[in-house]
Design brief:
alpha/beta; Rossmann fold; four-stranded mixed sheet; binds guanosine-5'-diphosphate; binds adenosine-5'-diphosphate; ATP binding; EC 2.7.4.8; cytoplasm; GMP kinase activity
Amino acid sequence: MNQDNKGRLVIISGPSGAGKSTVVGRLLDECGLPLRLSVSATTRTPRPGEVDGVSYFFLTPEEFAKRQAAGDFLESKEVFGLGHWYGTLREQVATGLNQGDWVILEIDVQGALTILENEDFDPITLFIHPGGMDELENRLRSRRTETNEAISARLETAAAEMLYRHRYQFEIINGNVDNAVAEICQILNDQKENYPCSKS
Ligand SMILES: Nc1nc2c(ncn2[C@@H]2O[C@H](COP(=O)(O)OP(=O)(O)O)[C@@H](O)[C@H]2O)c(=O)[nH]1
Ligand SMILES: Nc1ncnc2c1ncn2[C@@H]1O[C@H](COP(=O)(O)OP(=O)(O)O)[C@@H](O)[C@H]1O
């Protein structure tokens, strides 16, 4: 799927609350590359303001299981141990790569490792974190989207995920959003030298 300059896969992981969505939103607008976000499917309920098909495809557990059985996912995982599933849709990735886009997967560590084991891809991998667990907790609490139970599960998972950051090519500390965005744009544009885009 990745031959003939037909786009690239970019994997971004990091603990919940690290600022992945914030940074990715900016990258899409500011990097000057044909980036697009792969919209994942999930069984979790939408937060206020999240739009089906834009933030995620929000599926019932039954719909999700059906799509798993049909082989529609490149990878799918239960994240945080709270019974909510998340999955990368093959179609999202294939469509983007075939159009020459750089397809961003904003996925957890388990999903990233599964894709790294898949030899069809040669992804650029980035791990984002805020530099400290206290700051992570502050961000999660001030986002006001999660219950205390969900915040605790996210913090526990965060500690485990941090242990995998060395499996990624690039570690980004998102202390200041502007700096993190600039650093990642620079990394991606440097990679372009190795893999010229068919689109730009
Ligand atoms: N493996 C996998 N993880 C995903 C996928 N989509 C989102 N995630 C991860 O699921 C976690 C939870 O996402 P979300 O419920 O939106 O909460 P947030 O990270 O606190 O904003 C994050 O670590 C995401 O990176 C996916 O398709 N596959
Ligand atoms: N560099 C930063 N400094 C301070 N707050 C940030 C920073 N980056 C993101 N945030 C805030 O932290 C919270 C979590 O960010 P979000 O992008 O939702 O994280 P993630 O997608 O990794 O779960 C949000 O309220 C966001 O506005």
